[in-house]
Amino acid sequence: ERAARSEAERAARMKDDFVSTLSHELRTPLNAILGWIGVLKQQQQSPETLAKAIVVIDRNSRRQSQMVDDLLDVSRIMSGKLRLDVQRLDAATAIEEALASAQPAADAKGVRLVKVLGSAAIIQGDPGRLQQVVWNLVTNAIKFTPRGGLVQITLRKVNSHIHIQVSDSGQGIRADLLPHVFQRFRQGDASATRHQSGLGLGLAIVKNLVEMHGGSVEAASEGDGLGSVFTVRLPGGAPA
Q1: Could you tell me if 230 and 218 are in contact, meaning their C-beta atoms sit under 8 angstroms apart?
Q2: DSSP string spanning 192-223?
Q3: Residues 99, 105, 108, CA angle at the centre, nearest 5°?
Q4: What are the pLDDT digits (tens) for 3-47?
Q5: pTM to 2 decimal places
Q6: Is residue 200 within 8 Å of 181, Cβ to Cβ?
Q7: Residue 35: enclosing H or E segment and its boundaries?
Q8: Alpha-carbon span 216 to 212, nearest angstrom
Q9: Number of Cβ atoms within 10 Å of the Cβ of 156
Q10: 3-state DSSP call for residue 42?
Q11: Dist CA 157 CA 141 (whole Å)
């Protein structure tokens, strides 16, 4: 009974921390949007100011939209309402599209993206959701990799499965956090002064989507400052 009570209290604290983080993360881009709208409502602005306002409003609205999408995905997963549009596809194509979407974030931070994609890897899966899996892993790696660092994406066949591996030269994962990185409402630093933004839902979504495809995902890291490696294993489809 004491163990059950302790676990319930821990879960309640995690959810409280998450709600606090959610409030902060949604408010931050909203403040930026409202601030620049206020500037634009004043007297006529220079072309430079207008251009900067558009860039800031666009970036922050996209950031907020992504957070809302993540919340909706988690809600669908928890209620069992998320459905896959399964079809025959080449995993390399989904990876290429995800990398194209993540490239601007890598360029902005000065992180180099390197891809090592083998021959055609045909699988049965949902193209959009597999692209989401790769995008989440790659953008997560970019977030925790310092300027000048490297993020590498590898695709290879291993027997009847394909392996998608995302490795980085970033800050790594603490040993005490490693077993919990895929948990919902769990973050390495949930304080208001934490250095990284985001809701911490991306990896939980990755795990659920991969498992819905009949696969598995694992994280590995040698510790602080030593980078991390995420490996997705998916069953292969019929030969091309």
Answers
A1: yes
A2: TT-SS-S-S-HHHHHHHHHHHTT-EEEEE--S
A3: 135
A4: 888 877 777 777 777 777 777 778 888 898 999 999 888 878 888
A5: 0.78
A6: no
A7: helix 2-40
A8: 9
A9: 14
A10: coil
A11: 23
